[in-house]
Sequence to fold (534 residues):
Amino acid sequence: MASNEDVYDVIVVGSGGGLVGAYAAASRGLRTLVIEKTDRVGGTTAYSGAGLWYPGSAPMRRAGLDESVEDARTYLRNAVDDESRERLQDAYLRAGAQVIDELEQNPWFRSFEYAPVPDYYPALAGASPTGHTIFPPQVTVAELGEHAPLVRTCLPAERWGHDEGPVLSGGRALIGRTLAAFLETGHASLRLNTALESLVVEDGRVVGVQAVSDGERVTFRATGGVILAAGGFERNQELREKYQPVPPRAAEWTHGCPGNTGDALQAGIAVGAATDLLDAAWYVPGLVWPDGLPLFHTGTRGGIWVNAAGERFVNETRPYDQAGREIVHLHTTTGVSHIPAHWIIDQRQLDRDSFGGPHDQPVDPEWFESGALKKADSLKELAKLIDVPLDTLRATIKEFNGYAETGVDERFHRGETPWDQIAFHVLGFPALPQLNYPAPPTPGRPNPLLLPLDTPPYYVATILPSDIGTKGGLKIDEHARVLRPDGQPIAGLYASGNTAAAMTGRVYPGAGAPIGSSVAFSYLAVLDIADGTD
Fold:
């Protein structure tokens, strides 16, 4: 398909959120190449719900919301609390609304849709109880035609071979629509099974990439710029052990795309790029399924999590990044093992919520056969089963049951925030695959998220720290230009998504911030490149 040295205006490394940047470039008439390491397009974005945290965007206005970008800016400032990232935040807020306006001019994108997802830090000034998150509309396989087989499958399908059906939703819809729009510009090229090896530098400027494509070493040159948007290094255990306080199987427990081994990060470092936040990740709790691996878990409605001491340690329904980070933090700082954590429920809660599937269906026997869900007839047997002190476990459950009677979790305040409550009442949420839909409220209970553990037998599952990607990477400026340690940009080099250090710092302010950043900064990179090629 290509000679040993093809020339383009823009090269995008990776095909997740950065694919929007590729479309923006190609739609401007720039000859644009996307190289993708794997055999499918979409990266980790294809696994996601494709939320975009875009305050002030057109879909929010169409929803009739009295939207204040300044309130969102205040909230972002308070949540991140890092002056060095304020210019990135301002650029992100401008780009989010702008890129949606541009995308919606193309019929492939139709109208993005708003859905209420509360901001994750509700106590901070500027926080919104209904959030700022928008989603792409679904698209059918028939509509996408020849483009559909190129889109990466969702994680359950990849992991268990589930039939995905005729409709692409969430991240797959975003990727499918963007891929079709990109390839139809007339200025687009796509190379699958093409792994970045290094960047080509001439006279201090990045002018291309060296890659291996289907076993052949090739060079692609870029006259305008190279955008590194190849995800993080979550699948590289060696790099994770080098930079992060991670558990021993972090690269196996991640939900990042299999190709995300840090190639772009290392290529950037090799040409002098500065880095930041390499010790951080977008952590999530992972519920261990019958195949022995964790799956992103959110929306806990019942039961408690306890550590190796038999003590409860977190609001189990708090936003997933906060809960995941708390597991890692406590495990590495308290001297008490929190890996694994044990999720305990009783028979009443199993009857109400089931387990591992819809709340109104019986538990799949595979959960018990595999040992992913274990049963104990008494607290004494339960304590022995998970190897925690019986007296401590009894005291923990007694305390929790007291909170269930009053409806107030005095230790961790479960059920008190908009996010906690949306875990129980979905408020018209779209059918996102990550959400575990709630059962009806329990009559006579003041807080349906605090149901007592008092109906033997007891059941226990395993919670591990997982992640949806690392969040540290190459330092960038407000134009997505990659920076040297002295703060000067490396000419011709840009980064977005998890290849770049997150503009949100160590926090996760709201649903759609990671993918929103990937899209926004790849778009900003293209605006800068286009400005230089006029």
